[in-house]
Amino acid sequence: MGQSTAALAMGDVRPIRSPDVQLQRLPDGSVLLFHHAHNRAYVVTPATAHVWEWCDGATSPSKLSDTLAAIYDADRQRIGRDVVAVLYDLAAHGLVTI
Amino acid sequence: MTDATRRANPLLPSPPDPTALAEEATDEFCVFGFRFTVVTASTTARTLIRRLYQGFEDDGAPEHAPAFGLDRASPSRDSWYVLIDGATASEEQCLSGLTLRQAMWQLDYAVCLRILAHRPDLMALHGATLWAGPELVVMTGASGAGKTTLALALAARGYGVAGDDLAFVEPRGGAIQAVPRCFHLDNHSWQFVNEAQLALAGCTRRHQVITPADLGLHSRPAPLARLLVLSRGTEPAPRLEPISQAEAAIELLSQLRWPAGTMGDTLLALPRMLHETACARVTAGEFHATVALIAAWLGRPGAATPQIPAPASGCARMPSRRQGASAR
């Protein structure tokens, strides 16, 4: 990782989702991320799934926060903090690279 | 059983067994498209075998269908043997000195392996299959979690139990159907059977071989209405909590095997399998309290449980391998 929270918040990075990970939505709305290389599955919230899907290597955390704030009609600052936390969590499990 | 098999097997009885049939009887079965025959000269063994594969009777087994045999090794002792693939027994296991229960389990296991090998297009799910009225319920969890004993306890409360071990999942539509197997009861389970005074046939109780037919059921495919993930607890009070399908899916992934599919294919099949499935996790506690908690979640046993006699042929249920080739 090697990136600070501040760098993430300022949008200096472009997170990219791991190509070894498969997202699977279930009929009740719950979501699973499966890391094929690690053979591990993770239950994530729909919002986290959104974050993971937007990690395309081109979208900054800041842009992602704007988008999610619009989707969830939520406070932009709070969403920004949550996005950074989620990205670090996803990165810690090898689900995204930042 | 062929003459060659007879010659190859030194354990075949020479004098007639007092309870033996006048001559060997051959029964033909077709389970999930796997056609096979079972030969025995024992009335007791034949009764148990026919109960095990009730609903899967077949009268069109090809001449060279895999042949299994189960018979008494000696008329004077309660000692049994199993033949696998009759004429080719020299390459397979020829087991001797078994109780009838052990022999039935060996036969059941050998047939089950062949069924699994015959249907790599289906997902195999480790778990007990129950019926709560018209709803199909699967209770899954690691080996030793108590699925069999809980399933029998639920049977005593009027729920249907179609199997305690294995079911097939059709990946395209998500339908689930129990694979016919003997229930594998340990001493604790038998203690419960005796305490609960489950109504079992005489030979079933005597030889400790319980089949789904003993619980009045035949196997048929249906969508999964409820999924119970069972784990052992350390507290006397059991706990049951609804969980999301994603949480249940994590447990399912460790209990599913699909030879013809990758993990990615299995993930894609999960939404079809869990289409309208309510999921819960049960942390077992004191036995009777756990049974009561599960029964409360399942609701009334209901009367729409499929009862025997079964439809004509077991082959006609799940799509055949040819029909189901492009499951993904």
- Mean pLDDT across residues of chain B: 82
For the largest beta-sheet of chain B, the strand count, sense and barrel status come to: 6 strands, mixed
Please estimate the helix content of chain B.
25-40%
CA(first)-CA(last) distance of chain A: 6 Å
Specify the oligomeric state.
Answer: heterodimer
Structural class of chain A: alpha+beta
Low-confidence stretches of chain B: 1-16, 87-95, 306-316, 322-328
In percent terms, what proportion of residues of chain B is strand?
25-35%
The biggest beta sheet of chain A is recorded as: 3 strands, antiparallel
Binned strand content of chain A = 15-25%
Quote the average pLDDT of chain A: 89
Number of E-type strands of chain B: 15
Largest interface: A-B, 15 and 17 residues
Structural class of chain B: alpha+beta
Helix content of chain A: 40-55%
Number of strands of chain A: 5
> Strands of the largest sheet of chain A, in order across it?
2-3-4
Count of DSSP helices of chain B? 9
Query: Whole-number radius of gyration of chain B?
Result: 20 Å
